[in-house]
Specification:
- By secondary structure, the chain is of the alpha+beta class.
- It has six domains: 3-63, Arc Repressor Mutant, subunit A, CATH 1.10.10.10; 66-130, OB fold (Dihydrolipoamide Acetyltransferase, E2P) (Beta Barrel), CATH 2.40.50; 135-203, OB fold (Dihydrolipoamide Acetyltransferase, E2P); 223-468 and 545-605, no CATH class; 472-527, no CATH class; 619-703, Nucleic acid-binding proteins (OB fold (Dihydrolipoamide Acetyltransferase, E2P)), CATH 2.40.50.
- It has 16 helices and 33 strands.
- A hairpin with a 5-residue loop joins strand 1 (52-53) and strand 2 (59-60).
- Helix 13 runs antiparallel to helix 14 (516-526).
- The longest helix is centred in the C-terminal third of the chain and has 42 residues, at 576-617.
- The protein is globular, with a radius of gyration of 28 Å.
- The N and C termini lie far apart (68 Å).
- It is found in: Cytoplasm.
- It catalyses: Exonucleolytic cleavage in the 3'- to 5'-direction to yield nucleoside 5'-phosphates.
Amino acid sequence: MDLKERILDLMKSEGYRPMTEAEIFTALDLDLRDADQLLKTLQFMEKEGLVVKNRRGRYGVPERMNLVVGRIEGNPKGYAFLIPDNPDIEDIYIGLQNLNGAVHGDRVIVRPIFKPAGGRVEGEVVRILKRASTRIVGTLERGKHFAFVTPDDKRFYYDIFIPKDEIAGAKSGQKVVVSITKWPEGRRNPEGRIIEILGYEDEPGVDILSVIKKYNLPLEFPEKVLRQAEQIPDEITDEDLAGRLDLRNEKIVTIDGEDAKDLDDAVSVRRIPGGYRLGVHIADVSYYVKEKTPLDIEAMKRGCSVYLVDRVIPMLPSKLSNGICSLNPRVPRLTMSVIIDFDDKAHVKSYQITPSIIKTCERMTYTAVNKILEDNDKETIKRYEYLVDDFKLMAELAAKLTRKRFERGSLDFNFEEAKVILDEDGRPVDIVRERRGVGERIIEEFMLAANEVIAEHMYWLKVPFVYRVHELPDREKIYTLQEFLYNLGYSIKGVKNIKPKALQQIIEAVKGKPEERVVNTVLLRSLKRARYSEENLGHFGLAAHYYTHFTSPIRRYPDLIIHRILREQLAGELDEKRQEQLNEVLGRIAKHSSERERIAEEAERETVELKMAEYMAGRIGRVYTGIISSVTPFGFFVELENTVEGLVHVSTLEDDFYHFDDKTITLRGERTNKVFKIGNRVKVKVIKVNKNDRQIDFALEEKLD
């Protein structure tokens, strides 16, 4: 057991009372030579929020000192919530007066103050452990002797004061990057200096560049990383084939979107007596990216590839992500294969996990596969005639896997994502719905199957591992969801001991109905966020006891780590010393990867919403037909066919005074008795767009039903 674990065990023991460094030294019966190591370890643990040092110089774990460690989730209105590190602790509300200079994203220690009757716990920030970022992106407003920057991120609710000699020649209205030199104290705004001028917001590319800088996404790879990547061969050598299953003569294909370049998964299927043999073949990235090398360290920092509306910011240099690691057609590639034998009802009979070498015969797209399986397109069928039976068999197996998954209660949200089409200058020219066809479902089911097999295999070996976990939802959120659904005429079964199957039944019940999207959205928000963990806690949303992410090592760091551990296990290299090393780092890697994933999702969503707002800004005055997606006391939101959502504010409904009924979730006219409810079809006119805030305002033209 390492020193950190010994300290934590001591502090969590029943009879422990806060101790000084000297008392901890004595209690642990350390050697004098360990004194310096103890001090360094305590300092590190305090910095990470694992222990707290009180004013009398005594240490203890936060939970036994009535303190909670976590991350600040800011709100544009000025208040915030603490998202605790411990997922078993509910979020803590923090008013502006109790933030004590903490801002969105900061890692802090909070003291719970009180819990109002029937309300949530409130708290106060007592210590800031780590600032989320020292750089802020915003718009400059210059005065004669000083300037202010208004942050793009409304959750950073302070304007930043810029002294005259720190403006660096920036002009009013320009987007800039500010380095914070003084953090807010009391009523005093933070101060900063301008370190980069991005340009005026209406200049091509400045909007997306602002998002990239806001989330501190790395646009370039360090020179030493690129040098290492260049040393990797472009082609496979005979030396690479040792210990690999040769699958180059198998019919194996990749199936991806049209514009995908990092092809990290390929599949094959054939019928066997009494069932099916599925091959899931994943790029063997860990063969090229060795532990603690510049490539590995940079990949860990990035955590994942980021797919913005106009570009990809990759986790690995293109030499790997689009080259030697990408399963490009008709060239040999190194892979890790999971070969699963299913019975006729899609239950796993046996499996094999092995390093392999493949040569895909086609680079298929979802569009082409859907043309074959759904549209019976003669031209596409003729082009891929030798694979058509394989695709039909894939669809057959995938359908059975889907059915089996639904039977156990796995959730399947029917969200159609929006894709914004840009011109060469990055301006939006169209917004289209991306549908999930049979091709998409085939890959989805096959990847789920492989991930479950790998997770269960490693779990029973009792070796250090990284799981993809999704914990039980908070009971309070489920009660709130139940109330919302009751007002729409639905009810959750077994709300006190919620099972995923009960929520899947709600999803099925609303399918195809006007309220489907809002119910799915509210239901999704009632669940916890899936994350990475070194502990196997199960996956509620998939109703799976064992789950991991194994299938995308080109673009997700946890998958790369999993490949590395799997390779060592297969080679018999996971000795006790190596397992201790992994136990020391996997928790930190899982936590960091979860944080990087969240940042990537926020950045991706923001760029899409930004371009949607820009698209609608060019359509002021146009009339569209849409469906009321939600109703609030201040108006109702309308979703258009292209997935754009905008607000009809209650103040624009001039034919009557409208009142909100929270029991029926409706707006009802005082005189006319006219009712607006979720699912109503309406015609609306675009009257205003605020691109910076991604807000779109509609005016009601006509209620259609």
